[in-house]
Amino acid sequence: MDNLEKYLPNAAMLEEFEQFRKLQTEEEKKAFQQERLAKMERMSEEDRKQYLADSKNGLEATLSSCRENIKQTSASLRFN
Q1: Out of 21, 37, 51, 70, which residue is the most buried by the measure of CB atoms under 10 Å away?
Q2: Closest by alpha carbon to 62, among 5, 19, 18, 11?
Q3: Looking at residue 71, what is its pLDDT?
């Protein structure tokens, strides 16, 4: 797997991801999401904007990586 910092561009997001990966039940995951929403509501406007910008950058990097993988797989299938 690629370096996660590419997809999770700040330390808080990487930490949240690691925490989420450890959750096992739907209840734990729902509670985690609720806490994340509450955390965002407590952020200053500037911090929230930065968090959302980082989220967008991470999602764009994820989509770009997916597109590249699809492109490579498609090319590979044409040669087989």
Answers
A1: 51
A2: 5
A3: 92
Alpha-carbon gap, residue 64 to 77, rounded angstroms: 20
DSSP character string of 25-48? SHHHHHHHHHHHHHHHHHS-HHHH
Q: Say how far apart CA 27 and CA 25 lie, in whole Å.
A: 5
pLDDT band at residue 19 using 50, 70 and 90 as cut-offs: very high
Amino acid in the structure at residue 61? A
Question: Per the structure block, which two tokens stand in for 16?
Answer: 């949240």
In whole angstroms, give the CA distance from residue 18 to residue 78: 37
Q: 34 and 43 in contact (C-beta within 8 Å)?
A: no
pLDDT value for 16: 93
Residues in the chain: 80
